[in-house]
């Protein structure tokens, strides 16, 4: 099942298949979520306010890895 990533996902936690937080969505560009692993509190606040930007420490999230998107997080599936 394909899950559509939108700008409203910025600031959400990204959790693995076990429910462990692995990062936050720092920004969404053209339907691709960029994940910042292990963000500091400042980065989390900026992302939740939509002030995030992509830098060398952010990684694109492959849509095929997304199992579901809830109000608070993006849940990944196992490969």
TrEMBL record:
This is PRC-barrel domain containing protein. It comes from Halopelagius longus. It comes from the Archaea.
């Amino acid at each position: 099942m394909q899950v559509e990533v939108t700008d409203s996902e910025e600031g959400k936690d990204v959790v693995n298949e076990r429910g462990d937080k692995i990062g936050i969505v720092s920004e969404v560009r053209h339907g691709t979520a960029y994940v910042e692993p292990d963000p500091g509190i400042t980065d989390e606040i900026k992302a939740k306010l939509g002030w995030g930007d992509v830098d060398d420490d952010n990684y694109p999230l492959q849509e095929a890895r997304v199992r579901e998107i809830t109000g608070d997080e993006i849940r990944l599936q196992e490969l």
